[in-house]
Amino acid sequence: MTLPQSRRLDFSEIPILDVGSLVAGDDDPTLINALHRACADVGFLYVRNHGVSMALVETLKESAATFFAAPVAEKMKIVIDPRIQGYLPLGYRSYEGEDRAGTSHQEGFWIGHDRPLNNDALLDGPNQWPDGQPDLRRAMLLYFDAVESLARVLMRGFALALGLDEHRFADFFKKPLTRLKVNHYPPQNTPTADNDIGVVPHSDSGGFTILWQDNCGGLEIQNKNGEWVGAPPLEETFVINLGNIMQIWSNGRFSSTPHRVINRSNRDRFSIPLFVNPSADIGIRPLIDFDSNHSTTFNYGTYQRDLWRQTFPVAKIPA
Fold first, then answer.
1. Which DSSP category does 128 fall into?
2. Which H or E run contains 214?
3. What is the pLDDT of residues 3-22, one digit of tens each?
């Protein structure tokens, strides 16, 4: 897969957008224009007035902290499976191409849409849950519903920003491979190399990501000049970043921007990303200025499964 060239700039800060009007169903042209600039020039933005309860966020963070404090042997009982659902152990090795290879100083817990096993849909399956922690299950499911609702609002905004029908993306997410993850970054005293930090430099693979981060900081994004720009935590905001699929859909008008995490705080850092991914059975191609003579269509599910296989060897995704 080759990404279309993006117009990402040598930015020095990340835009902050109030999306309250979009949440309310009012497609304010000023906001849509600002959204277009943020997605085109940076590929990252903060959103406020998003409609998600911060109390819900805090409840999930506390439940996640309890889960990560459990003995490793307990967590490994629900180790991540070939559908990328379950516990991802600390210090997993990533092999997703030379630009992403490295050891991530992070552990995580993943869930997706709870579906029965299906030989015709190899990334579908039931979630795994730790025994004796009903609060984690309850909090993750409530959070998933709330933030996925925000994702649908943002899809409409992205479509309008690209000059498309506001419902253009909806058909691509009828049975999404969206995944919710809670992350724990233990303190790391000497993160000295890009291949041994909280999360190694990478671009997200799917549609887009909605991230909550605690007040430790550590997220950095890379501008066109190769400089790392901090994305510090801002109260009552989410960080939104676009993935490779959105860059393809936009034919390079929007940017899937490289980023990394380094926990320099000497404290335990927690974050909660929702990876908003389309349905496995859709074909991916540019939606704007599509040239059938020079552009190809590929299956999203195959692409994502191959990528996850390379990124998470511990999941043992069959070839």
1. P
2. none
3. 565 555 556 789 999 999 99
Name the token pair of 76. 């490994």
Flag whether 169 is in a domain.
Answer: yes
- Helix/strand/coil for 101: coil
Would residue 5 count as lying in a domain? no
The structure tokens listed for 158 are 């992205």
Lowest mean pLDDT among 66-75, 93-102, 163-172, 211-220: 93-102
For β-strands 44-48 and 16-18, DSSP reports them as parallel
Contact present, 162 and 288 (Cβ < 8 Å): yes
**Number of structural domains in the chain:** 1
Is position 146 within any domain? Answer: yes
Q: How many CA atoms lie within 13 A of 6 on its CB side?
A: 30
Please name the residue that has the structure tokens 């859909």.
249
CATH number at residue 131: 2.60.120.330
Who's near 133: CB < 8 A, 6+ residues apart?
Answer: 63, 66, 67
User: What is the domain range of residue 232?
Assistant: 17-36+45-110+127-315
Tokens of 257: 């921007």
3-state secondary structure of 276: strand
- Residues 201, 82 contacting (CB under 8 angstroms): no
Tell me the whole-structure pTM to 2 decimals: 0.93
- Backbone φ and ψ of 20, nearest 5°: -55, -40
Tell me the C-alpha distance between 178 and 181, whole Å. Answer: 10
